[in-house]
Design brief:
By secondary structure, the protein is of the alpha/beta class. Helices cover 46% and strands 11% of the residues. Strands 1-2-4-3 form a four-stranded antiparallel sheet.
């Protein structure tokens, strides 16, 4: 069966025709978007009115007079300075759904992509040795949904779960385990809840010693150096934290009915060895420059207080690397090793500036271009009662497992109330 024309395209065609009839000399895009006031809202008339030096509301009224309502569009009203609020005819909805249902290929009238590529989707990024909270939910479900849709179009998708598995806190955790052996059970002997309970216990105990014992704090800092330099004993204990955390991650994702593949969990640590090379390449190409001992990238259009440029710090003055170096090294890996044509990052909106700078740096280096693109699929932030983002360690978060368990419990109560003939096993299955 041939693909079914979407209602969006049908409406867009009618609007484009009406716009062209109103102003034949100007090319116009109706700029359709979803609206809470109607099925669609078109705001392209504002741009057209500016070009034509016309009153946008008068122009909108003229365009509406040229739209034929009935089969597809039921009603159009002019709103505000010249927006068009569009209501779709019930008949068009029913006929479109019927045509999709009649598709005997099982594709609901959705065509395969003409030129499918390779998309790497970075989503569901929990942190090792930390509980997942309600704020982690959206990255996981949005990323999983995007991946499913892209797979359906024939795109090759590769998941990447950029877990937080590197950094100074691991020096504290590992040093504590060295001095208190046996505190973590082997991952094979615990379930998800026990794994997280063990990790929380070790974190709190190590934190208490770290904050009260200067000698331990110094030993922990030296352990970070040992970790970064690849010390065998240190790496083995670090791996134990990672493995224990994975047991917990899988238990949570299983409740979300999400498939998380082990080979797609590629944390910050995976890019550690490549960061010096990233810094060297950027400096040699002239993309990054030395400033006060640090290696940075400046941007003309990104400025902070006192109109001073805000740089992206690739390498700190002390030689250390941060998130920018890790993300840029990940881009190199995904573009050149995984052959990605599109990179999607499902990360909350607070990281938008960071990714804007990272992507621009990668473009200047030639790693991203017109054929290989990167996008941050930003979403909002889950806030606490004080209007500020949750802090995992402060104990103020809603645990994601608790949220999911309560959702299942409430759903079961609804089913139990409405379907009294079902057995308890059938209720839980529903």
């Amino acid at each position: 069966m041939a693909s079914v024309t979407s209602l969006t395209d049908l409406v867009s065609e009618q609007l484009t025709s009406a716009l062209s009839a109103t102003r034949p000399e100007a090319s116009a895009d109706p700029l359709l978007r979803r609206s809470d006031r109607a099925d669609f809202q078109a705001n392209g008339i504002l741009a057209l009115a500016k070009k034509a030096k016309a009153n946008p509301r008068d122009l909108a009224t003229e365009v509406v007079s040229r739209i034929t309502t009935g089969d597809v569009i039921k009603d159009v009203e002019v709103s505000g300075p010249g927006f068009l609020n569009i209501t779709i005819a019930d008949r068009a909805l029913v006929e479109n759904l019927a045509a999709r249902y009649a598709d005997d290929t099982g594709r609901l009238g959705v065509p395969l992509a003409e030129k499918p590529g390779v998309t790497v989707i970075d989503y569901a990024q929990p942190n090792v040795a930390k509980e997942m909270h309600v704020g982690h939910l959206r990255s996981a479900v949005i990323g999983d949904a995007l991946r499913g849709m892209l797979d359906f179009t024939g795109e090759t998708t590769i998941g990447r779960h950029h877990i937080g598995d590197w950094g100074t806190q691991f020096g504290m955790l590992i040093q504590y385990l060295l001095e208190h052996p046996g505190e973590l059970a082997p991952p094979s002997e615990v379930d998800g809840e026990q794994a997280m309970s063990n990790l929380n216990r070790v974190y709190k105990a190590s934190r208490a010693v770290f904050d009260s014992d200067e000698a331990f704090k110094e030993r922990a800092r030296k352990r970070v150096v040992a970790l970064q330099s690849g010390d065998k004993e240190t790496l083995e204990l670090w791996q134990q934290f990672v493995d224990e955390s994975k047991v917990y991650f899988y238990s949570v994702f299983d409740k979300l009915d999400m498939e998380i593949r082990d080979e797609e969990i590629v944390g910050e640590s995976a890019y550690n060895d490549g960061m010096p090379e990233t810094a060297r390449l950027l400096e040699e190409m002239g993309v990054a420059e030395r400033s006060e001992g640090a290696l940075v990238v400046f941007f003309d259009d990104i400025r902070g207080k006192d109109d001073q440029p805000v740089p992206l710090i690739v390498q700190k003055a002390d030689g250390g690397f941060g998130y920018a170096a890790s993300d840029l090294t990940a881009i190199r890996n995904r573009v050149f090793d995984l052959r990605a044509t599109t990179l999607l990052y499902v990360v909350d909106v607070r990281q938008s500036l960071h990714f804007k700078m990272v992507f621009e740096t990668a473009r200047r280096a030639g790693w991203l271009n017109d054929d290989v693109t990167a996008h941050n699929m930003a979403y909002g932030t889950v806030l606490g009662a004080d209007g500020k983002p949750f802090k995992t360690r402060a104990g103020e978060t809603v645990r994601l497992e608790d949220l999911l368990d309560e959702a299942v419990q409430r759903a079961a109560e609804v089913v139990r109330e409405k379907a009294k003939d079902l057995t308890e096993e059938e209720i839980q299955e529903r």
